[in-house]
Amino acid sequence: MSRIVVATIAGSDPSGGAGLQTDLRVFSLLGAYGQTVITALTVQNSLGVKRWQAVTPDLVKDQLVALFEDLPPLAIKTGMLANAEIIREVAQGLREYKPMLIIDPVMVAKSGDPLLKKDAEDALVKELLPLATVITPNIPEAEHILGEKITDIPNALEKLKKLGPQAVIIKGGHLSGENATDYLLHEDKVYTFSSPRVEGRVGHGTGCTFSAALTVFLAQGKKLPEAVKLAKDFVFLGLLGAKASPLGKGVSPLDHLVHFERLKEAPHILKELEEAAAYFCSYPVRPLIPEVQTNLGYALPFAHKQEEVAAFPGRIVAFGQGAHPVGCPRFGASRHIANVILAAGKFNHEIRAAMNIRFREEFLEKAQKMGFTVGEFSRADEPREIKEKEGSTLSWGVTEICKKLGFVPDFIADRGEVGKEPMIRILGKDPFEVVKKALKLLEGG
Fold first, then answer.
1. What is the 3-state composition of the chain as percent helix, strand, coil, each rounded to the nearest 5?
2. Do the domain assignments include residue 445?
3. N- or C-end of the chain: fewer Cβ atoms within 10 A?
4. Could you list the residue range(s) of the whole structural domain that residue 400 is in?
5. Per the domain annotation, does 297 fall within a domain?
6. pLDDT confidence of residue 390
């Protein structure tokens, strides 16, 4: 197997939250062989940057030469470049070697501490930006480079592109709004990429993570718009992981290992679905099976796409007095059950499994008597724009119930409408929890 080789020219963060340590972690997680050129040693952690010292320019140059004489990287990203002398040495080397170049114009740390000396800003703009495949400033960095306040992002993109890079990304995390939106100017077209904003004291190393992921995806041959979307998704999941389990006492770095956990957990999810379905079908469950049959789904941690939820492609169908799963579980097999899980997961990331069963009033009454929480939505209350959008009803209904209750209930009742069978959906942390809740409804019956 031929490995894709990429490199980072950046400062060292001993806490591992940013800098070349983060870059290497991202490179490895995405399947690339990572190399480094160290520009500075920093003393920092999640609480801030305490001090830093640049490496001598000739040592930076020699590191870069060493990479290209032995194992030339296909793509290189730059982070902290420290001073003008280092920038000039890097630019000279990159003009000679001509790799794909992703420039993250690191000027200030997440904590607000400066990471680039004043005299280096002109060198960055004049020497390095014209060599870039793409640059990835956030709003403050873009304003710093342009020397003006940004009020019109498409105009700012154009001005930055005139400085020489082939493409420009302005990251919009510093803007207000429910979503964090990034903007890409590529081949005279502006693209936007949005993800829900992750609130809280998280985000140390966000820029490093994004540019490192972008570097790998471009080195893999992906087109720039696709690479930006994938890099943004990668950052979003890392932020969700950090919010769920913060690292450090200050601004938590992203939890990159959530990506490793998802890779590791995928086969276990499929196995657990099979086992839970077999357990469910070992009982006389025919009274629980609706006319449209049943399905059971289980999502990856922090899932946000239908393809990240596994279910049975042929559903679980009535069979005599019991039921039987049709086919083996796979990811992306059920849009309906995925929409239920994804909507619930936005309120509680631990809720990763769901199942649909037949609607009966006695089931709801029995569930409440046993101490389960029950919510209900009416399709009559569904806004017209939601109803007209195919596949949106379940997401809307689950969201409305969770907003109203302030939590994700065990059971959600949907009384249906003309052409739509009434249904009960059961939610839980894993498929066995969901199946056991369903089987409870048969007790004493």
1. 40, 25, 35
2. no
3. N
4. 264-440
5. yes
6. 62
